[in-house]
Write a structure and sequence with these properties.
Radius of gyration: 22 Å
Helix content: 40-55%
Shape: globular
Strand content: 5-15%
Number of helices: 17
Number of domains: 2
Strand order of the largest sheet: 3-2-1-4-5-6-7-8
Bound molecules: 1,4-dihydronicotinamide adenine dinucleotide
Number of strands: 8
Largest sheet: 8 strands, mixed
CATH topology of the largest domain: N-(1-d-carboxylethyl)-l-norvaline Dehydrogenase, domain 2
Amino acid sequence: MKVGVIGCGTMGSGIAQVASTANCQVVLYDLSEDALVKSENSLAKVMGRLVEKGRLTDESALAIKNRITYSTALDDMKGANLVIEAIVENLEVKHKVFQSLEAIVSDECILASNTSSLSITSLAACLQKPERFIGVHFFNPAPLMKLVEIIPAVQTSAEVLQKTQETIDSWKKVTVKVKDTPGFIVNKVARPFYSEAIKMYEEGTADFATIDWAMKEIGGFRMGPFELMDFIGHDVNYVVTETVFKAFYYDGRYKPSFTQKRLSEAGYLGRKSGRGFYNYAEGAINPEPTTDPVLGDYIVDRIVAMLINEAADTLHVNIASAKDIDLAMQNGVNYPKGLLAWADEKGLPYCVSVMDELFDEYHEERYRCSPILRKLGKNNATFL
Ligand code: NAI
């Protein structure tokens, strides 16, 4: 199989590695010669490390490298069965690339975008054959993160959906099918992990070190919300929140926070700038958590209930199946459990009661309990 990858930045380089590891012939195209050289060098380093660790033999590392050709000529996409685009997040630029591409590849070639925030349907609309278009959303770093969200556009044919899902499954990824809606599954369902943590911090319920401690030690999450935001970068995390908020017609559930906006304005972007919520300078003193189990339980209960509610609502409006929503959160952001399975374990009436108590306290839209959670809770049913 010949796979084209457009854009050799963080994501494109990772996707090319994944496809080549799965024995595909890959053409990696970029406008920038420098970017291609950087991508090739960085793959060589990654392969070297994998050989050192004994995860790959010299021969297979060489074969993975050799199956990728680096090119600044879009014409080299000729003969590709699948082309995945991972260039700048700009609708007009992507439209231009896909229109040029359609004149080069065969009618059977599937065209896909790795976009995080643009509508797949609006991308498909620029093509002569929009039914061949689909979203394939990898997570960063693509070679390590198992999840790929597969997003058919309104125009995508059933055959293209099936073929794409089969191909990405054969690359040893966990695929989930998602309706073309803002944030797909992961970037939508994960919003409360950050926003509810920031809200508690802003209101002085607990400081960020305590919230991170509770979510890790009691909740079982790999990273606390503040550590994770510092890791992602406040500029990036804030833009995702704002994009989802606007795209959902300003639904109060996704309201961004001034605290995070100010951090990005200050250039306190997190790890990458040396300072975010935490200070990463050598010898810097960071706050110690208050390890109060009662407070810790309250924090975890509240954030997890909000996450469960968001997952339930995603199911309620048929964005994805219950099984796929759980798979997505476990494989896309490494949650310790699927959220709907977690809801079943806690008992749905209990989850409803946490949401209702928050709504009684705040009377804010963000705390409205999803109808499906309330309905199943009333019948003592479960999600899975
Ligand atoms: P990046 O900035 O690392 O790389 C983009 C590459 O595209 C650069 O090498 C640039 O030279 C090239 N490029 C720009 N315009 C081009 C054009 N017209 N033709 C050919 N090449 C062009 O970007 P990154 O982070 O890899 O993101 C790419 C896409 O993947 C975006 O759509 C983004 O939303 C999506 N994405 C990003 C994730 C991330 O964590 N960075 C995660 C999942 C999706």
